[in-house]
């Protein structure tokens, strides 16, 4: 009978939520917004490419004076340059629109800036002048050096490949950090999107004065458990809805959006880290969902519950404000407090797990703590809901709840 009631609650809550137009409007706002942004960016990039092609067809012409002797006339001529000796006259030609630009190369370009004068092409178009002026010097220097390898090294354009080791094994590096961080992103995104659903899951029945009727046919434990499980299911649906446009955008519009190609083979998926990350996310979500339901059971309305729920969110995101400390000194006293304090533990532990500073025994303690506390909070939420169901206008008193329990225990004894 209890299992039947649980299935009934889950089916009702999920069906009621997914059947609301408001839910789908809010849920689809993000994918629609992503689609609009993708369309606008694609259009913008297409227009930009057309402008770039048009600009490349229209070759820039310029005059220049060279006090350094470093500029190769052949290089400058190939880029559209003509040497002059009268800077004032050349600048006057630019002002009159008779010449695109004029460059004044100083005696020591390494310490004195090159002066560029040009016809205004807009904030971004004006950068072309600086690029051409610099390219003239670079190409001229390369020709004087004569050795392409020396030229590359002189510019600092050299690549370095690093290999590090942990306990004799090659470390995964950054590519091993990203996969475990997926669980942190999912936890944070899901909690943010479903925060209102968590808070109002128990308040609606109280405000509508139907809880007494519900409790005559349903066990409070089945009711609260069903509500929490339904939030999990609804969250999973929302995550899928958000991921679909992201996947479509990457697969079909990656070039238009200038997105980098991601090689999944380059990522390192450590089974231990992935399992720990999944358990931390699941335990953290269960704890925060149960706590939100308990807040809803205590408070008479959403307005009164809002302040407590805001405090809950602050406790959750506090580690993000000290993320540099979490990464640089994971064994400091502050980080240890964040790691083991239940409401800051999920994000702190997931960060440390992704960056490899969370030991196995630490992960076991935090995961156990989260799931055990989730079970305790669930029982507390059930008891608070049982008392709060008849407190329509007043906040439930913890003293009354536990005093009633003690009195019943003594009566049975």
Give a description of the structure.
This protein is mainly alpha-helical. It is built from 17 helices and six strands. It has helices at 2-18, 21-57, 73-78, 87-95, 127-145, 148-154, 174-200, 203-207, 211-215, 220-253, 271-298, 302-321, 323-328, 333-340, 345-354, 360-388, 398-412, and strands at 62-66, 81-83, 101-105, 115-118, 165-166, 169-170. The strands form two sheets. A four-stranded mixed beta sheet has the order 2-1-3-4, with helices on both faces. Helix 11 packs parallel to helix 16 (360-388). The longest helix is centred in the first third of the chain and has 37 residues, at 21-57. Mean pLDDT is 75; it is low at 406-413.
Rg value: 32 Å
What is the helix/strand order? Answer: HHEHEHEEHHEEHHHHHHHHHHH
What is the molecular shape? elongated
Specify the helix fraction band: 55-70%
For the secondary structure, the number of strands is 6
By helix and strand content, what is the structural category? mainly alpha
Any idea how many domains?
2
Strand content: 5-15%
> Strand order, biggest sheet?
2-1-3-4
- Contiguous uncertain segments of 5+ residues: 406-413
Average pLDDT, to the nearest integer? 75
Q: N-to-C terminal Cα separation, in Å?
A: 29 Å
Major sheet? 4 strands, mixed
DSSP helical segment count: 17
């Amino acid at each position: 009978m209890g299992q039947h009631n649980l299935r009934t609650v889950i089916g009702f809550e999920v069906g009621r939520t997914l059947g609301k137009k408001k839910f789908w409007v809010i849920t689809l706002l993000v994918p629609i917004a992503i689609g609009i942004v993708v369309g606008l960016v694609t259009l913008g990039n297409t227009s930009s490419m057309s402008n770039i092609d048009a600009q490349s067809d229209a070759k820039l012409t310029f005059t220049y004076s060279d006090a350094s002797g470093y500029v190769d006339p052949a290089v400058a001529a190939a880029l559209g340059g003509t040497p002059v000796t009268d800077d004032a006259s050349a600048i006057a030609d630019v002002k009159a629109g008779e010449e695109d630009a004029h460059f004044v190369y100083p005696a020591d370009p390494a310490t004195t800036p090159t002066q560029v004068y040009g016809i205004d092409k807009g904030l971004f178009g004006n950068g072309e002048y600086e690029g051409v002026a610099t390219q003239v010097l670079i190409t001229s220097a390369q020709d004087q050096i004569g050795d392409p390898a020396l030229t590359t090294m002189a510019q600092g354009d050299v690549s370095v490949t690093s290999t590090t080791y942990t306990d004799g094994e090659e470390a995964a590096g950054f590519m091993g950090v990203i996969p475990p961080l997926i669980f942190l992103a999912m936890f944070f995104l899901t909690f943010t999107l479903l925060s209102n659903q968590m808070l109002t899951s128990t308040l609606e029945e109280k405000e509508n004065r139907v809880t007494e009727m519900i409790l005559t046919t349903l066990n409070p434990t089945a009711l609260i458990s069903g509500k929490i499980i339904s939030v999990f299911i609804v969250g999973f649906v929302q995550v899928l809805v958000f991921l679909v446009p992201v996947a479509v955008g990457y697969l079909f519009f990656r070039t238009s959006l200038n997105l980098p190609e991601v090689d999944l083979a380059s990522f390192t998926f450590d089974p231990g880290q992935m399992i720990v990350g999944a358990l931390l996310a699941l335990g953290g979500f269960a704890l925060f969902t149960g706590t939100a339901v308990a807040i809803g059971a205590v408070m008479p309305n959403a307005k009164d519950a809002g302040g407590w729920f805001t405090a809950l969110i602050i406790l959750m995101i506090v580690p993000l404000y000290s993320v540099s400390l979490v990464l640089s000194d994971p064994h400091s006293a502050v980080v240890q407090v964040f790691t083991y304090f239940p409401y800051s533990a999920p994000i702190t532990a997931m960060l440390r797990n992704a960056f490899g500073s969370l030991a196995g025994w630490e992960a076991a303690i935090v995961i156990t703590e989260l799931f055990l506390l989730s079970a305790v909070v669930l029982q507390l939420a059930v008891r608070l809901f049982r008392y709060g169901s008849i407190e329509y206008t007043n906040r439930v008193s913890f003293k009354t709840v536990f005093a009633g329990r003690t009195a019943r225990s003594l009566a049975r004894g």
